[in-house]
Design a protein that fits this description.
The complex is a heterodimer of chains A (429) and B (91).
Chain A: E1 19-24, E2 30-31, E3 46-50, H1 57-65, E4 97-99, H2 101-107, E5 113-117, H3 127-141, E6 145-149, H4 153-165, E7 168-174, H5 179-186, E8 191-195, H6 199-210, E9 218-220, H7 226-229, H8 234-243, E10 251-255, H9 260-274, E11 284-290, H10 295-302, H11 327-337, E12 341-344, H12 346-360, H13 366-380, E13 390-394, H14 402-405, H15 419-424
Parallel strand pairs in A: 5-13, 6-7, 6-9, 7-8, 10-11, 10-13, 11-12
Antiparallel strand pairs in A: 1-2, 1-3, 4-5
Chain B: E1 2-6, E2 20-24, H1 28-38, H2 42-46, E3 57-61, E4 64-65, E5 81-86
Parallel strand pairs in B: 1-5
Antiparallel strand pairs in B: 1-2, 3-4, 3-5
The chains are: A alpha/beta (429), B alpha+beta (91).
Pfam family, one (chain A): PALP
Modified residues (N6-(pyridoxal phosphate)lysine) (chain A): 127
Cofactor (chain A): pyridoxal 5'-phosphate
Chain lengths: 429, 91
């Protein structure tokens, strides 16, 4: 077994529950659990390999259902110690799966349309899920500082989780993010550093920092803790299936930034099938990007199996990763399941944010506008079947990206406080 | 042309633990060939069997991602800083 130099000496033995090893997704080489993320043979991404519970599915379902109403109900399937629910963490998850009948009518979906609304997490994005797992890995490996490269949502999630769990935090963001995300990242009291560049520049900076003594002893949730961090997105798959009555959705529309979330949702669905927790039936996975940063969509449409990086230019900043690490795997999964990858313009994103708000009372951030917009486009193109059960992800809260809709969302009228003025405004009907 | 190459942690077993090494070459391809002469085995980690950059390796010449430039044919000016970085980060 190959062993790499690690930044800190892990507390031994490392207790991360059912996690048995790290395995290279490219070449299959296995490594001991540790704060490493790339294969030393081929640079491929490492992911957690498990000894999953050999348990009667009925008993395991019952054990999960009796668990806490957060992601720790799935602790037997995650790289966390069995007593994780008792440790200081933000305890995210078990967000609402909203049956979106009004939106379904508007879009012509008859088979059941659901919005998995992850704006209900503690810092109002799905990032709380992945960070919660990374915090447990950081604890296990003895780190005392948490860090990340972020398009905004992750910075807030790391800052908040560090505050709760007793870590120092120092996070890095592009200097020109939306104010809502900057304030949310800063308010938790950790260090917040704006980098003069785009997200890919920030990401590159963090990858270099981690190999330098300056970054020694730091747990970068999406770099050296990335194999563990990514597993948090599996909980979206688990929750969707449990909330559908332990059933796979037929179709699921997922936003793509690095592509990690989409690949881990697929991994989660596959695990549920293997464990017998859901019936094994076909499902299709669809990826959603903004046109101004659509390298995966472009590769999908061109029939390529590699992703050519782009320079992002879109209002969907949380998805503005021009060099997506998991892009090739997203292509594999979309093609394997019979899904697709599509993109929408910034104008379509704004329209779709408003459509979701108007029909379901859900105010999504720009990434949610991307998934709703792509859902509409895929239905029109006949790639999504309106007669099948479809789940659309909203991964963050619209309050974080007010700039996107502020120019076209405001008071209908401003009037004097008099009945005459109200009548004159023509709103009394 | 003499350049400085930043080596990621997972390749430092080939450079005796050094995080930065000097190399010669007018293009990235030549620089990698020189690295291989000085630190045997390193090229096979960065290049695949067909001699192309592995898909999970990012290489920057003076802050420019070579995938936006000419790939392995990217010119490496005298004194350039070259970074080899695992691509599987972020998101």
């Amino acid at each position: 077994m190959a062993v790499q130099t690690v930044a800190t000496t892990p507390v031994t033995p490392v207790d991360l529950g059912p996690a048995a090893a790290l395995s290279c997704r490219e070449c299959g080489e296995r490594f001991e659990l540790g704060p490493i993320f790339a294969c030393s043979s081929c640079f491929g991404p490492l992911e957690v390999a498990y000894d999953l519970p050999a348990e009667d599915p009925e008993a395991l379902r019952a054990r999960i259902e009796a668990g806490p109403e957060n992601i720790w109900r799935y602790a037997p399937l995650l790289p966390v110690p069995a007593d994780v629910a008792g440790k200081p963490n933000l305890n995210p998850g078990f967000t609402k799966l909203v049956k979106a009948d009004n939106l379904a009518r508007e879009l012509g979906v008859t088979g059941g349309l659901f919005v998995k609304d992850d704006s209900g997490n503690p810092t109002h994005s799905f990032k709380d899920r992945v960070v919660a797992i990374a915090v447990e890995a950081a604890r296990a490996f003895g780190f005392t500082t948490l860090s990340c490269s972020s398009t905004g949502n992750l910075a807030g999630a790391v800052g908040a989780a560090a505050a709760r769990a007793g870590f120092r935090s120092c996070v890095f963001i592009p200097h020109d993010l939306e104010q809502g995300k900057v304030v949310m990242a800063a308010v938790y009291g950790g260090e917040l550093v704006g980098i003069e560049g785009n997200y890919d520049d920030v990401n590159r900076f963090c990858s270099e920092l981690i190999g330098d003594p300056l970054g020694e002893g730091w747990g970068f949730v999406n770099v050296n803790l990335r194999p563990y961090y990514g597993e948090g997105s599996k909980t979206l798959a688990y929750e969707i299936c449990e909330q559908l009555g332990w059933r796979l959705p037929d179709q699921i529309v997922i936003p793509i930034a690095s592509g990690s979330q989409l690949t881990k949702i697929d991994k989660g669905l596959q695990e549920l099938i293997k464990l017998g927790l859901v019936e094994d039936r076909p499902y299709k996975i669809f990826g959603a990007q903004a046109e101004g940063c659509s390298p995966v969509s472009a590769a999908f449409k061109a029939g390529h199996d590699v992703v050519r990086p782009v320079k992002p230019d879109t209002i969907a900043k949380s998805l503005a990763i021009g060099n997506p690490a998991d892009g090739p795997y997203v292509l594999d999964i979309a093609r394997r399941t019979g899904g697709a990858v599509e993109d929408v313009t910034d104008a379509e994103i704004v329209d779709s944010i408003k459509l979701l708000a108007r029909t379901e009372g859900i105010f999504a951030e720009t990434a949610g506008g991307v998934t709703v917009g792509v859902t509409r486009k895929l239905l029109e193109a006949g790639l999504l079947d309106p007669a099948l059960t479809t789940v659309v992800l909203n991964t963050g809260d619209g309050l974080k990206t007010l700039d996107a809709v502020a120019p076209t969302s405001g008071p209908t009228a401003t009037i004097r406080p008099s009945l005459d003025a109200f009548r004159d405004a023509g709103l009394a009907h | 042309m003499s350049v400085n190459v930043r080596i990621p942690t997972i390749l430092r077993t080939y450079t005796g633990g050094q995080a930065e090494v000097a190399a010669e070459g007018a293009t990235l391809s030549e620089v990698i060939a020189d690295l291989e002469r000085k630190h045997s085995g390193i090229a096979a980690r960065v290049l695949d069997e067909s001699g192309k950059l592995r898909r999970f390796v990012n290489v920057y010449v003076n802050d420019d991602d070579v995938r936006f430039e000419q790939g392995l044919d990217t010119v490496t000016p005298d004194g350039a800083g070259i970074s080899i970085i695992p691509a599987v980060a972020g998101g």
